[in-house]
Records
---
Amino acid sequence: MLSIGEFSRLTHLTVRTLRRYHDAGLLEPAVVDDVTGYRWYSVDQVPTAQVIHRLRELDVPLADVRAILRTPDPGARGRLVAGHLQRLEAELDRTRAAVASLRRLLRPDPAPVAVELRAEPARTVAAVSAVVDQDDVAAWFAGAVAELVAAVGGAATGPLGGTYDDALFEQGRGRALVYLPTPVPPRAGRVQPVTLPAAELAVTTHVGDHDTADVTYGGLGTWVVGNAMAVDGPVRERYLVGPEDSPDPAAWRTEIGWPVFRVG
Amino acid sequence: MLSIGEFSRLTHLTVRTLRRYHDAGLLEPAVVDDVTGYRWYSVDQVPTAQVIHRLRELDVPLADVRAILRTPDPGARGRLVAGHLQRLEAELDRTRAAVASLRRLLRPDPAPVAVELRAEPARTVAAVSAVVDQDDVAAWFAGAVAELVAAVGGAATGPLGGTYDDALFEQGRGRALVYLPTPVPPRAGRVQPVTLPAAELAVTTHVGDHDTADVTYGGLGTWVVGNAMAVDGPVRERYLVGPEDSPDPAAWRTEIGWPVFRVG
DNA sequence: CTGGACCCTCCCCCCGGGGGAGGGTCGATG
DNA sequence: CATCGACCCTCCCCCGGGGGGAGGGTCCAG
């Protein structure tokens, strides 16, 4: 039996942290003296403590650590951990994108975004639409695109596009729609004909990873406000060059259009 | 002038977050109506908001973001940001090490650490020693080693070693000492002759990156407790294969010795 | 038996926000 | 001119994963 201090020295976890893990049901001491409240740990608990330590270094929440520890089957446990490793990799990607974007932002005098005003006529397209959470939008998007491509096939007359409610960005949940223009929009599964209304669009093209699009969005916003206009209606995007066209995010090109109207 | 809601839409920062940045002195609205308290932002503030957004994505603390924004000189600002990017890279390394270590830990039935009991005689060596913070120990170590190598040169009769007070791990601050064994320890700058006392050591060898050493430490602890012994005195390490010998962390070998005595 | 090291619980603090209450302000409409 | 809904304000409490410290009990070696 080891006192909490001795156990702390063996595991490099602070005494405080060990007490917290006890309270959280993560690492119960082998014995708790019910008179003095002293915690006594067994040597066998050292490896468990080390697993916890590692998982915490990876910012795995305590609740998830608990779930992992309570999964006895090594295979299932491995899958749980693999999920977190995947999350970490996604985070690394995000970090890299943020670094790249930051470097561009900090360049003195960034080139202002080139914006064009364009009157867009109403168009009927093949579309998949749903109300989604911001976190799920990437997965939803992938599925919707696959279904669209299967339904429209080679009959597409233009690049893939999408529209997104403001609420998706502001409340984290809103309507998203992806479409392919085609002469006779089919009806298959979630794919429906949808008529995009006519609109006057302030249009610009974002080059690069989609994670850095908000810089372009901001430039567009600056232009819109600077030209005494305001925005009404969901944002429209068209994916001129995307992941399926080029593996290099730097080559991606996304056309972004905001429906605007003149004010003042 | 943009209301906080409009500004929020342009920057993809929530209204709440903008108010917080105002309170924190990070992003003052261009105008605050002193009757109604309404915040009004200028279009020019959009780029600033985006820089903040990027920095926050990199988990730069608000105080540091403020410091960066208040540094007008682009060069100095670039250096500040570079510091954070360096921190990020270090963190990535740490993450990778944790992932690797975790994989090993989760392998069923990890090989127990091979421990040897060894009586170490007292030895006088050339050493550099200081009380340091855990966060600074890496930088201090590098400088001390450089000074040692310069003073001892080719006269070293064994690998580089170090000793570390328990307090360094427990309180985050304690005495660290690095040494090179040599027949006639010189006295130069911070380099002094120091006599390491005789001790009985429980010795094992850690293979791999030093960040994963606590697993080996834990194994050593298990062995010590399991053999009815206890630890007294600073931990000793000897760097048999280190970064200067091999670029591959997997090849590094560190001998870890705990001064022990028999109990019970 | 006494001192110091060790252990206990409890409360408040940190960061970077989110949720929601309760109330004031704005501008388009009737 | 009133009214209504959208917008904005402040204030307080919540989260996770701990750290700092107060105030008090326990253990063991000298």
---
Amino acid sequence: MENSVFKALAHPARRQLLALLRKGPRLAGDLAAEFEASWPTMSRHLAVLKEAELITAERQGNQILYRVNTSVLEDAATALLGLLGRDNGDDDLKEAAE
Amino acid sequence: MENSVFKALAHPARRQLLALLRKGPRLAGDLAAEFEASWPTMSRHLAVLKEAELITAERQGNQILYRVNTSVLEDAATALLGLLGRDNGDDDLKEAAE
DNA sequence: CTGCTAATTAGCAATTATGCTAATCTCTGG
DNA sequence: CCAGAGATTAGCATAATTGCTAATTAGCAG
């Protein structure tokens, strides 16, 4: 649901994870290494993001590759813009405001 | 801080408050009346939004008028779009909104 | 000052989030 | 099978959030 997305975005470490993934898919351990927090802690943050469907996981043999789920992030941004009462300007969103 | 903004957005009641305020400024009691939760509870949600500077409060005699702080909400939306790696081009935001 | 309405703050219980260490799982390679 | 790396899950303690009722503040009218 939408709510889990915003709750997932509420933690700075998770937003930073998304920022890292923005540049391309990365392995779990690779991501965890960028943070001060312990590996299990980062693993949990990744799980929260996955639960909100903000990221997807794919096993690559021994390791796990994460990537951003762009459309869900887009939906969240669109929801915020909707709160502004302004049109998004996104290609596939047409408003019916008169 | 940016973080308090996303934390404030994490609760559905607070996003709904913003949605109500999107259409124009409203009195605290007027807003509280729209929710099932008790008035003090809504008052606290308003305080969280104010703390994040997503809204501003203005006394009108006996009552308090709240309004959305558009720029902070814009910043949050922009931050999300930034996570998408796409350019939002809102330097000006003078796009003809409808 | 008293009383009244609008709204916030205090205090409390219950739930949820965070972050650690230890234990477990999954896969690869001998 | 066993050993090891990569990663998650379990369990626990602490902190933060949520939402209530009761108490309090702020302003207005008499």
